[in-house]
Design a protein that fits this description.
Number of strands: 10
Helix content: 25-40%
Shape: globular
Structural class: alpha+beta
Number of domains: 1
Length: about 250
């Protein structure tokens, strides 16, 4: 999203589960923090049914190659939710949810109300940073039991689910120190706020992602794709070896 003025609020939670060595068919996560009742690990059909509860007039639509979404085209309050699913051979389950709203000036929302809603749902922030013109950042970091940590790792500020969307088919990038902590531990909600002025919100986007879950699923998809490519290559070589010229 292109924001002229941006405040960024990130909610970060350490994973409820540490083991993501493999995702098996039919497996889902223990219920984690949710967004609109949707949470990472939620099965595809259950997630679609949950999202549909938010509108009786507009229907959930597929988003080619990534998942599904719901767009409510109210010109005074454009509201869009996108749900991202793991790819085959994994069973389709949710790994990220995004929700964005854009407000008409006559029906704007205050930043304090937006923050209050998140604090009510996730608790009081325990980490923040002021990047000046680059935005204001707030963080909530929890341990596996849901207890707010006193000193969360500031490197979580660099984690993003949006940047991992293309990785779901070709696998995780080669890790550095930052990616290692994101891939291994980042379960978080990120709120991006586009301010109309010091108090009023022009638009915002919220993202809930479980990176370890996404990385495990992407790795399975990558390995399956590579195996399929290698099998196709071997079949091609076998046929080539049977094709002999006559001179």
């Amino acid at each position: 999203m292109g924001f002229s003025r941006m405040c960024i609020l990130t909610v970060v939670l350490l994973p409820v589960l540490l083991g993501f060595a493999a995702l098996t068919r039919g497996q889902s996560l223990t219920h984690t923090p949710d967004l609109l009742g949707l949470y990472p690990g939620m099965p595809n059909l259950a997630a679609r049914a949950q999202l549909q509860k938010h509108s009786s007039e507009v229907y959930v639509q597929d988003i080619l190659g990534t998942g599904f979404g719901l767009m409510i085209p109210d010109p005074k309050n454009r509201d869009q939710t996108s749900v991202f699913l793991t790819q085959p051979p994994n069973e389709p389950t949710v790994w990220m949810i995004q929700r964005a709203q854009t407000f008409d000036p006559a029906v704007s929302m205050s930043k304090e109300n937006l923050l209050a809603a998140l604090r009510q749902k996730y608790g009081k922030e325990n980490l923040w940073a002021d990047h000046g013109g680059g935005g204001l950042y707030y963080y909530w970091v929890f341990d596996r039991s849901g207890k707010l940590l006193a000193t969360p790792d500031p490197r979580f500020m660099s984690c993003s689910g949006s940047s991992f969307i293309t990785n779901m088919t070709h696998g995780p990038d080669r890790t550095n120190d930052i990616l290692a902590i994101c891939y291994g531990s980042f379960l978080g909600v990120t709120l991006y706020v586009n301010m109309r002025d010091a108090q009023l919100v022009r638009s915002y986007s919220v993202e809930l992602v479980n990176m370890p879950y996404a990385v495990a699923a992407a790795t399975i998809t990558m390995n399956a794709n590579r195996a399929a490519e290698e099998s196709a290559r071997q079949d091609e070589l076998k046929k080539a070896n049977q094709n002999k010229p006559t001179f």
